[in-house]
Amino acid sequence: MADFLTSTHRAKWIFSPQDLKEKYKAANQRARQALEKYGATRMEVDIDGSWSYPEPQSDAKEIVEKHSRPKPLKTEEEQLLRTFYEFKIQDVCDAFKFPRKIQLVRLKKIMYQQKSLSLGFDLIVYAPYRALDGFVNVMEEFIEANDDQLQTLKDVHETAKVESDKIMLTDAPLLFPPGQLALAALYRANEVHGLLDFERYVGSLLSRQHDTHSISELTVSMNAIISLVTKLVTLTATDMKHVDRKLKLCRDPSSHDKSKKRKHRSKESSSEMHA
């Protein structure tokens, strides 16, 4: 059976906050350099994970005047776009009755940002959902649940799944192991339903699993995860219109001219209809 402790996910894709910040910054810088060198950031990702760009434009400065070049996205704008489309992925999952675990594509997407011949990860990427199921089973034993408590426990489980979905929209999966993500989701759910003394429950978990973490260490991690969730903002297409336009221009500067031509043709057609 696959084990997170020996996985490439744990070895290569759990970062410190500073390391993750630097990786975002480096990816943004590569995009800026591509925009300067090639006149666009559009690229192809080859099957081996390497990147390929069009031939450098030696006369790029002549083709695109400096004052009219597309402005590169800021790191913060890239993160807003990513979060916006991740919300959309969850909406699509709901519409087609897909499990939201498909959100794991997020981790692989981040991995593709690393330019190397090897992507450095195995097929399996871990999420909090399996750990959550296990923790709920232990919780049932811990409270020696009667019929009424079993219903509350089910409610806690469902609320924790929703909290896990929110967690997957943040940077938390790249900063903390899936077990800690699941505990943070359970903590939030237990706050809603008031099923048990969560600190005593965590202490029971640690003694059962002979875990080297202390309750205080796990509390710090859970609070950090919860803090990331509380900062999530639901963005609308209107909110993202300006950033999305910047992205399209960076990927293909000629799209602006194409858009202007379409609008011009549309106006001409409208004029002919009313003539």
From TrEMBL:
Database matches in Pfam families: Cyclin_C_2 (PF16899)
Record keyword Nucleus present: no
Keyword Chaperone in annotation: no
Signal sequence region: none
Record region (Disordered): 251-275
CDD domains (UniProt xref): CYCLIN_AcCycH_rpt2
InterPro entries according to UniProt: Cyclin-like_sf, Cyclin_C_2
Domain Cyclin C-terminal: residue ranges: 128-229
UniProt KW keywords: Cyclin
Name used for this protein in its record: Cyclin C-terminal domain-containing protein
Source organism: Rhododendron simsii
Source species taxonomy: Eukaryota, Viridiplantae, Streptophyta, Embryophyta, Tracheophyta
